[in-house]
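Objective 1.3, modelling of assemblies. Example input:
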Amino acid sequence: MSRTTGRSRRAPGVLAVWAAVAAAAGCSGGSSASCPPSEIPDHDETTLVIEGDGWSGYAPFRDGGLLDGTGYTALYVEQVCQDVRAADLTAGRADFAVTSLDQYLLEHPDGTLVGVIDQSLGADALALGTANHPELDSVDDLPALIAQLAEDGDKPVLAYTGNSPSEMLLNELANSTDDLRLSDFELVSVDQSATAFEMLEADEAQLAVIWEPETSAARAAGHTIALSSADVPDAIVDVIVASDRLIERDPSAVQALVTAYYSTMDDMLARPAAMERFYATDGGLDTATARTLIAGIKLYGRSDADVFMNDDVFPLDTPQIQQSIDAIGSVLALVHPDIPLDQAKVDGSYVSAAVGVTP
Amino acid sequence: MTTTDERAAMMPATPGPHGPTDTPVADPPAVPNDAAPAELVAGRARGARLVRRAGRVRAPSTPFLLRLGMVLACLPVVAFATAVQFGIDRNDSTVRTVGSEATRGITYAQALKVDLADLDEVVVRSLLERTPLDANGLPGDYNAERAEVHESLVLAALVSSSGAAYEQPLTNIDYVLSHYHALVKDTFAAMAAGDTAGAVEAYGQAHQVMAETLLPEADFVDKANSYVLNDTYDRQNERSASTARLITVSWLALLAFLVLAQVLVARKFRRMVNLGLALATVVALASGAFALNRLHDSSAHLTRAREQAFDSVHVLARARATVVSARQAQGQFLLDPEADGARVAFQDQVARLLRVEGSEVTDLAQAGSVPAGSGGHLARVAGPEATSSGPESVRRAVVAFGAFLTEDAAMEDLVAAGDIETATASYTSGRTYAELDAAIDSAQRIEQETFDEAAGAAADAARHLDEINLLAAAGILLLALLGLFQRLREYRT
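Predicted structure (tokens):
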């Protein structure tokens, strides 16, 4: 299961291989030439095509019955390449894309943010290889390790998943803590979190940015979780993007999906055990792993989403989504100075309208 | 003197590889006469004539070769001059970014952060001291500090690059400052009205705005400039090897050309040395070695500036802002001893300055000792892996930090004993704080001087190198041309 290349896995073997091939082919680098086009079956006008990847947070969109009773049908199409997903949205081949906010800003499709799905609050983390280096149990031990390796002209290896929330987390951590200077490390981009964790285990990397369930596995294996997405709230946010073509052609379809999604989420959030089972089934995980996964993310119901999308937050007096766009965009702008932040479009009215609908 | 052609005309028509000859060239493969059509026979005769004519084509004349050499001499000289100029441009750009632009951006960002922290500290101190208010309802110190914040904000905006990474946080600071000022005004208004609880509450909100929005945004401006600094510096490190290779290759090609020209001319004219070419070779040898040496020196000075001095300057600047925030937390604690948030904030700031796993920070700091595995700003400049250029000055800062913590502990004891008045008097005197601030300032100044000196040396090392390079290239070309022209003239006369 993957985001560009993988988060919690639904079909680990096949997707991991696919993700590795896709990443090796430069998929995560954004070259649509190396990404397969989305396989979108023939469908009628009332079918809403939703493109996303295998991330567990998108599980409700994969539920074939999501839009039951609305007059529409949901069709989830898996597309691991963010640029193809954005191109499909722009071309109208997809009606919705579920993606992370940073990727929306980077790919800037002709689409509008109409809802928030989840945000990482600890699920993504920076692990130190304490099991192999017992002295390395705090970021304060990094200078000694860096100095020790520098004597041989080496740097500590930091493995992370490129073009994924791991990369975003790495940039955010480097920009929000005093203890992590990326130039002190040899950064190794890998295809997925599991690979980064394997490198940490094999001492091929002394640090790794990983996500659940590897975060829990690393902790259990005696490694140290030094920093996590909980240290940089509002930095890793998943969102619903509606195609501008669909908004113009059939806004009621957008409303139908947003309302149905938040109804499902409200229902699940009210029944935690059922929610664990749902995510466990979707991801092919055991219940305990699903519980750990859910504990590391904040899932949004309709009222929280309404606040996130529409309520001005003091002291910047803009909604949290706008503040996240600005904050994430500022970080991205360091590497991509021409990123068009002013092209980001937000419409919280669909969530507001969903709040008024009785479940 | 007979010319080559005249000599050739006088030579007997003997067969030989070099002389004119009437020896028939090999015929094309035999074809039976009865089978050969007339066109084929005529074509064969034309072919035979052409081959004979080709056999008479002479080797290029010496004047032609000399002229060709003069033209070709331009190529390696231009390639060498261009490669050196390319290296100089890259070096200058890096020295400018690392030595002044990015570091200046970081310095202004840190100044902004210190000024913001100072502003917050002035509020809490003014509340504790019951400072009289100016006509605008705010203490004079606050108004002065506010003007400094504004000035720092303008300076940070002026030196920052364009783009969201810089503009967004500065825009946010500008916007949020108005909220902060409004809350501070409410605070002093409540205090003036005798509503201490209202004042404490309003100040709590103001401090939250400062701690959760203004200071992190100022930090981000610093991080953005640090990113540019690190990125530029890392790129320069990666490129310097390839630049040196490029210059070396073009330099060797130029030397090879000059030596080859010297050898060929010597063979043709049977003179060992062509003075022009020899001088050109010496100038090329010297100018290439000089350029490589200067660029290497510049890079080495820049490394010293960046890796040794500026890291310390930067960390000490952060330490200074953290100390101000710690002092603000002390004041907030005295303002409302019942609330424990201020003590937690103070301990957070202390941990940012110095933390040692399993040891008492105060004792170690008083002894000026920072063991391996310590964390925090002071550990980075005074720890075993630190590379600061003034170790004694940073040690004094650590000792001053110990004294600051000792005084804080005594203050906390006084509050616990109910003697808030004495604790407040100790706070407002600010003796150990002033000493710590001065010690950090002094250490920072030493590191800044080291940085300025190294950055200046990096700039000096490559100063006028472009002019020298152009002069040398022109000299090499001129000498080489003169050397070849001299032979050309001899040949004509």
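Chain B has 14 helices and no strands.
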